[in-house]
Amino acid sequence: MMPKAYDVAAEQLPRDVEDECLFLSSDFPRVQECQTVYAVALKVEEGRLREGHAYDCLRAIQNAVKTITAPMDKKRKKCLWSEC
Hints:
Elements: H1 3-11, H2 29-33, H3 37-81
């Protein structure tokens, strides 16, 4: 870990997992100005994490839609083959 990031992490009080700071490049405004190898690597890694999170959210939406529509599809198919 970078020394400055370590200092910031050590100063933090315990929080809920949802509120935990991940120390990504967007959490440090001065890193955006700095174009060092470490800053670029942080930005690339943050992009990958955000893309993965987006895929996870899309998968959760797909599962929710399938859960909601499955009983309706089953009922519709049953009605097609018999009198409702």
